[in-house]
Amino acid sequence: MASALPLIDRHGRAISYLRVSVTDRCDLRCRYCMAEAMTFLPRAALLSLDEIAIIAERFIARGVRRIRLSGGEPLVRRDAIDLVRRLGRHVGSGLDEVTMTTNGTRLADAATDLRGAGIRRINVSLDSRDPATFRFITRHGDVARVLDGIAAAKRAGIAVKINMVALAGLNEDEIPDMLAWCGEQGHDLSLIETMPLGAIDEDRTDRFVPLTRVLDRLARTVALERDSHRTGGPARYWRTPWGTRLGLISPLTANFCDGCNRVRLTTEGHLYMCLGHEDRVDLKAALRNGGVDALDAAIDGALAAKPARHDFRIDAAAPAVARHMSVTGG
Ligand code: SAM
Ligand code: SF4
């Protein structure tokens, strides 16, 4: 008989948020995220859409209220919208929302379908609005397509939050303009510190920007008001003069692991209890070999092993964990 016990870890934290990486593949190669020549998982290793849905539904039955689909680039997986549709049926009965983080390259075509499938909010990564800087950071991306995608999402009635990784010497000086543009467009903006996840072709320490520095600079020219909104993640929020929200995701300069409410499922079926640790539990094997009861037992085991906090340090010689953000889905 499957356990329907609520998801409480050994540190007393209730798990209410599941992130799912639906593919480790991506059509871009952002420098801070991936190496140029990345090796991706063979398709045979991936969970099927039905398996992802069964696992996600088990989490919903046990108390997860928000699910975010991510990747890699979720929209390069053809059946991603079918998954949104299937999970979207649970919104209002157990689940509060299904959301997605996307690089936006395919959003212009997908926006209306995503809205129809149940997406009401989406995060779009946009590290620069300058075509040359964007192309450099993503190694070949076309910012015009992403901007079209963002406009299409807005027209479809999806609230857009922009994600921007702060990068010294690349986009740091663009942050005030990005905040103003987001404000004028009605988009919230989250600034993110680079995290030491997976080997890339360069040294992340060269590009690391502490968000404390960004906030000090912004506060000299923009009236920002502290906002008490919390999501159980490492973000802190401010209200901007445009009525939008500014989020700072700074796991390196501020640690909020005490209130962590999330776990992460990879496209291979591994459940990671912390972005900053290698420990994982194989839910694919549990489901395939023992069905839903074994899945529940594996989830219980994972909760018992969720670490108290991450071990990130930007000045460490090697990445804190070997896997890339694209495997665990941001
Ligand atoms: N491809 C989609 C995208 O870029 O939005 C979804 C996956 S991506 C891994 C999710 C988020 O993680 C993006 O906002 C990206 O900028 C961020 N990210 C990737 N690698 C990172 C790293 N090493 N440190 C901090 N943020 C990272
Ligand atoms: Fe792809 Fe997103 Fe990583 Fe950029 S950040 S390479 S878009 S997965």
Q: What is the CATH topology assignment?
A: TIM Barrel
CATH architecture tag: Alpha-Beta Barrel
Shape: globular
Helix-strand pattern, N to C?
A: EHEHEHEHHEHEHEEEEEEHH
Please, could you describe this protein's structure?
- The protein has helices at 49-61, 80-88, 107-117, 131-138, 143-155, 175-185, 211-221, 283-304, 325-328; strands at residues 17-21, 66-70, 97-102, 121-125, 159-165, 188-192, 225-227, 235-239, 245-249, 262-265, 270-272, 280-282.
- The protein has a twelve-stranded mixed β-sheet.
- The protein starts with 16 loop residues before the first strand and ends with a helix.
- It is 31% helix and 17% strand.
- The protein has one domain: TIM Barrel, CATH 3.20.20.70.
- It has 330 residues and is of the alpha/beta class.
- Bound molecules: S-adenosylmethionine and iron/sulfur cluster (SF4).
- Iron/sulfur cluster binds next to loops.
Could you provide a short overview of the structure?
The protein is an alpha/beta fold. Helix content is 31%, strand content 17%.
